[in-house]
Amino acid sequence: MRVTKRNGAEYVYYLDPDSYLEIKLIETRKLRGAQQVTLTQYGDYELVNGVYFPFDIESGPVDSTSAERQKITIASAQANVPVNDALFAMPVGAGK
């Protein structure tokens, strides 16, 4: 699936034909006047509270080798976990 934004940035999404999960993204955009093409690959999908999430993500310039790309491996994930409302309270003295 190809998406082109108004600013000219282009995103090409590759989906698994059986699961329809995103397996690859090629992003082309201008950064400081130069064209930049980034490849991101997704894998090791796991079901978390009814939604599939990629637990392995690899990203870098499209012409880089796998060894040169950034790799993220997620050990565990939770969704819709109860959170204490106090975590979102305004800090004491804020706004003075």
Task: Explain what the structure shows.
It is a single chain. With 96 residues, the protein is an all-beta fold. The protein has one domain. It has no helices and six strands. The chain has strands spanning 2-4, 10-15, 22-31, 34-48, 51-61, 70-73. It has a six-stranded antiparallel β-sheet with strand order 1-2-3-4-5-6, with no helix packed on it. A hairpin with a 2-residue loop joins strand 4 (34-48) and strand 5 (51-61). It starts with a strand and ends in a 23-residue tail after the last strand. The model has no long low-confidence stretch (mean pLDDT 94).
What are the salient characteristics of this protein?
extended; 6 strands; 96 residues; mainly beta
Gyration radius (Cα, Å) is 18 Å
Distance between the termini: 49 Å
Series of H and E elements: EEEEEE
Q: Class by helix and strand content?
A: mainly beta
Shape: extended
List the helices and strands and how they pair.
Layout: E1 2-4, E2 10-15, E3 22-31, E4 34-48, E5 51-61, E6 70-73
Antiparallel strand pairs: 1-2, 2-3, 3-4, 4-5, 5-6
In short:
With 96 residues, the protein is mainly β. It has one domain (2-88).
